[in-house]
Amino acid sequence: MQRIVVIGTTGSGKSTLAARLAAILHCPFVEPDALFWGPQWTPVPRETFRQQVSEALAGDVWTVGGNYSVARDLIWARADTLVWLDYPLPLVLWRLGRRTLRRIVTREALWGGNVETWRNQFASRDSLFLFAVKTHCRRRREMPALLAQPEHAHLHARRFRTPRAVEGWVDAVARQYAAAGAAQSREIS
């Protein structure tokens, strides 16, 4: 497990999990949102985004948290492990709500210096809540077929339906890498 991509519905915790895994593996965390969004929520040009993703994935070890279909071919081709956070929609919406409210209240600066607002999250066609509702069932329907395609046969796919299952897996990964690190330290000494 050297190159991990974490996917799931908006608000499921993809970036959070990918960042945690990067810390455990001591490797770079690639956040496609940071490469995609410019100031005033303006997307960068498609080819610029793909080039930036390609450059970010040049290393041998990394984690990625994101679903961008425009770069899926680049990410999935290089990944060896895919983690799918397939949580129930009510849980995703609750997590998204908690995160969004925190970001609005704290005026947390996101990619490109953008901030979330009440208007863009609760009174806009661009609302992430609307996006999550629209894409949740579609992802559940399409993802197994995508993963079954021959070009993705190399991926070790893990599908998690609960945060508790993810926590158990992350704990096991952390123990495995801690033990491997300790063994390497003994070999070097």
Write the layout of secondary structure elements.
Layout: E1 3-8, H1 14-25, E2 29-30, H2 32-36, E3 37-38, E4 42-43, H3 46-56, E5 62-65, H4 72-78, E6 81-85, H5 89-106, H6 118-122, H7 128-147, E7 156-160, H8 163-188
Parallel strand pairs: 1-5, 1-6, 2-5, 6-7
Antiparallel strand pairs: 3-4
Helix pairs in contact: 5-7
Task: Describe this entry's structure for a reader.
It is built from eight helices and seven strands, in the order E-H-E-H-E-E-H-E-H-E-H-H-H-E-H. By secondary structure, it is α/β, with parallel strands linked by helices. The protein has a single domain, classed as 3-Layer(aba) Sandwich (Rossmann fold). The strands form two sheets. A five-stranded parallel sheet has the order 2-5-1-6-7, with helices on both faces. The chain has a two-stranded antiparallel ribbon with strand order 3-4. It starts with a strand and ends with a helix.
